[in-house]
Write a structure and sequence with these properties.
Helix content: 55-70%
Keywords: Membrane, Transmembrane, Transmembrane helix
Shape: elongated
Number of strands: 0
Number of helices: 2
Strand content: under 5%
Structural class: mainly alpha
Radius of gyration: 22 Å
Length: about 70
């Protein structure tokens, strides 16, 4: 999937989350704090793009040569 599509979808989800919080504010502070984590994650992916794999792939070792 294209990085641009993922960033666009995350940006739209973040804006929907913010709009929902503005139109219907949370009842108590714990609900508001609970909305911060997914919102921060969506905003991070929307701005930076999806992260690549943290674990680097090992390169294939060269075949050993026979010594006579």
């Amino acid at each position: 999937m294209s990085s641009l599509v993922i960033r666009l979808v995350c940006g739209l989800l973040f804006s929907a989350l913010v709009l929902g919080a503005v139109v219907h504010p949370p009842d108590n502070i714990s609900q508001g704090i609970g909305m911060l984590l997914p919102g921060a994650m969506l905003l991070s992916v929307a701005l930076k793009g999806p992260r690549r794999s943290i674990i680097k792939k090992k390169r294939a070792a060269p075949a050993p040569t026979a010594v006579r």
